[in-house]
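Here's a chain:
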Amino acid sequence: MVVVGGGTAGVAAAVGAADTGARALLVERSSALGGAATLRNVLGYCGLYTCDGRPRKAVGGVADRALERLAELGGVSRYGAVVGQWTVPLFDPEAVKRAMDDLVAQAGADVVLGAAVIGAQHDAGRVKTVEYVDFGGHRHTAMADAFVDASGDGALSALAGARVDIGAEGRMQTATMSIRFSGFSGDPRPRLEMIRDAVRHAAANGALPVTSSSGTGKAETDPPSSSTSASPRSDA
């Protein structure tokens, strides 16, 4: 089996296939496995627990093994309540890189990093081969009985001729920008109010459009009144 995309879903697919005795090849275009968790600062796994007042584990399997390995590396919280009923384990992205490597290595799956899929051959609605180019610019062709598109963008599906729609009738979710800080002394404990005030301060000083301070994803179009504007606190 060939899996295109080495994010969380792709790793799970490759490990699951290898666990059954199949030969699995995982093709990832970046320099590390883990996808958004390691490359885009998405530092939590949503959907592993139920969304209610008493969260219960809803997903196991490879996810359990990933969390166990992260715990061994000291790279994951037990869980963290983020918003409302959401219960999300939070982790260190560098630890996720190591954990993903360990999972595929233990399962016996083959991995190619720095490889971009550039073509796919299909016959009668079934993918037969994929073509990818490695970091050195060399082209390779992989044949398999089964293929998994875990690219996150439907890349393999599009190359194989499938219809790919972007968004819901043209509507797409607002992108989130992430940033990491280090070198703090003590425990700064940033609060939601601090982030909100910083966004409103930027809007009041002409930084438009900016992300909604309410978290709705709707851009601020009118600077808030001075009574709601505040400079970022010094303890941010």
User: Anything to note?
Assistant: The two ends are 48 Å apart (CA to CA). Residues 93-107 form the longest helix (15 residues). The beta strands are 2-4, 25-27, 80-81, 87-88, 110-112, 116-123, 126-133, 139-143, 147-149.
